[in-house]
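Late entry, evening session. Most of the bench is empty. Finally got around to the prediction I had been postponing all week. Sequence below, unchanged from the version circulated by S.P.
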Amino acid sequence: MLALQHSGDGFDVQTAYFNRTSIVHFMPDPVGDLVFNGVASDVYRQSVVNGFRPTPPIASPTRIPARGFSVSAEQTLVNNSSLLLPLDSLGQPLDAPFNVFDSSSKTGFLFGTYLQDEWKITNQLT
């Protein structure tokens, strides 16, 4: 997260940009998984979120709560490469293992608004 805050001329303003990246990659033991499970999958998942949260200028001495909006976009990617061993009804191999590949990607957007207020109960507790 990167935020810029400015106070001056009786106004407070803040703008923030944020990013979150998440990656999971499972790599199998091809021989062991194929013999034991009949399938060995290499699975890769990635999610990247970028967002923006500006706060409109607010006059400092007023009692108006902070307000604003946020916008973010998330891109997800899933790749799955599976090595399959074809078996008959008795569990005996029919043929050589073959590969199946599946890939998908989606983009989603999130829009939101907020109100934020602050109360001072004591000098040490806000």
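Two things to note before I forget:
DSSP finds one helix and five strands in the chain.
The mean pLDDT is 86.
Will write this up properly tomorrow.
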